[in-house]
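User: Let's play a game. I give you a shape written as C-alpha cells, and you guess the letters that built it. Ready? Here's round one.
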C-alpha cells in the first residue's frame, strides 16, 4: 500500500514539474529577441570604435526594440552596403572628365572612318560576348551563317575549336594566366603550357571570357573571311586576313566582315560592335586602301 502511495506521489511531482513545449508564438518571440540582441551588440561595437562624444548614444540610452524579419533584413543590408562603400575610393571628377573626353574623341574617330566606308555602328549588347556577337552579326549579313546559327555560342565554338587544333599559332601570343613564375608556367618564356592552353580554349567555348586579337584571327581563318576592325587609334583599320596576302580582301569580290573596337565604350572598357552598311558599298575597296595608305 505504501508503495502505491509512493508511486502516486512521484507521479504527482513529475506532473507538477513538467514544462510544456513552447508555442509557435513563443518561438517567434524568442527569435525576435535574439536578433534584437544581436543587432544591439553590433551597434554597440560600432559605437565603441567611433569617436567618443560627451553624450551617450541613443542605443545606449534605450533598450533594443523588437524588430520584425523585414526590418532586420533591411538593417543588415544597409550595414553591408556601408561596409562595401568603404572599399571604394572617393569620386575623382577630373579623372571621370578625362575618360569621357577620350570616349568622345574615340567615338568621333570611329565615326569618321565608318562614314568613309559607308557603314554605321550596330550596337551589340555589352555582356562579355560582344566580340563573338558582333562577328556573328557580320557572318549573318554575309550569308555565311544562317539565322539559327548566327549567335555568340556558335562563333565561340568555332574560335575555340580552331585554336585548339592550331596551338602553335596562338600560344606564343597568349601569356600564361599565372604569370612567368606561376604554377604550371614555363620558367623561361612565361607562356601557357599545353594544359593551360587547353583550359583557355575551353573557357572561350563555354564561358563569358572576353575575346580579343587571337580570337579574331582564329575566326577569320575558321570562316575563311577577312575581318576588318575599325578603331579610334592608329591604324584606324586593322586587317585580319585568313590568307597570307594582305590585300586579298581588297579585290572587290571577297566577302569582308567589319566590326568596330571601342576602348572606352559604355565606361566598361573594351567593347566590340558590328558595322552594317548604310547603302550599297560599291567603292568600299578603294576607300579601305586609301585609309590604310
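Assistant: Ready! My guess for every position:
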Amino acid at each position: 500500500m505504501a508503495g502505491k502511495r509512493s508511486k502516486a506521489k512521484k507521479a504527482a511531482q513529475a506532473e507538477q514539474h513538467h514544462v510544456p513545449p513552447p508555442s509557435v508564438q513563443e518561438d517567434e518571440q524568442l527569435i525576435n529577441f535574439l536578433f534584437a540582441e544581436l543587432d544591439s551588440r553590433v551597434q554597440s561595437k560600432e559605437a565603441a570604435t567611433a569617436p567618443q562624444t560627451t553624450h551617450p548614444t541613443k542605443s545606449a540610452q534605450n533598450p533594443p526594440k523588437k524588430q520584425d524579419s523585414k526590418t532586420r533584413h533591411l538593417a543588415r543590408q544597409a550595414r553591408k552596403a556601408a561596409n562595401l562603400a568603404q572599399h571604394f575610393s572617393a569620386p575623382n571628377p577630373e579623372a571621370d572628365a578625362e575618360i569621357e573626353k577620350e570616349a568622345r574623341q574615340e567615338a568621333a574617330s570611329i565615326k569618321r572612318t565608318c562614314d568613309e566606308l559607308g557603314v554605321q555602328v550596330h550596337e551589340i549588347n555589352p555582356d562579355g560576348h560582344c566580340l563573338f556577337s558582333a562577328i556573328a552579326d557580320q557572318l549573318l549579313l554575309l550569308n555565311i551563317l544562317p539565322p539559327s546559327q548566327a549567335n555568340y555560342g556558335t562563333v565561340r565554338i568555332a574560335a575555340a575549336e580552331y585554336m585548339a587544333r592550331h596551338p602553335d599559332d596562338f600560344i606564343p601570343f597568349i601569356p600564361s594566366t599565372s604569370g612567368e613564375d606561376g604554377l604550371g608556367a614555363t620558367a623561361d618564356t612565361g607562356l601557357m603550357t599545353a594544359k593551360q592552353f587547353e583550359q583557355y580554349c575551353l573557357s572561350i567555348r563555354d564561358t563569358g571570357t572576353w575575346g580579343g586579337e587571337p580570337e579574331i584571327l582564329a575566326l577569320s581563318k575558321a570562316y575563311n573571311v577577312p575581318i576588318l576592325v575599325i578603331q579610334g587609334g592608329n591604324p584606324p583599320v586593322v586587317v585580319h586576313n585568313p590568307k597570307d596576302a594582305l590585300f586579298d580582301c581588297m579585290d572587290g569580290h571577297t566577302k569582308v566582315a567589319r566590326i568596330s573596337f571601342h576602348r572606352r565604350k559604355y565606361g566598361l572598357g573594351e567593347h566590340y560592335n558590328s558595322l552594317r552598311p548604310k547603302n550599297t558599298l560599291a567603292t568600299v575597296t578603294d576607300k579601305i586602301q586609301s585609309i590604310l595608305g
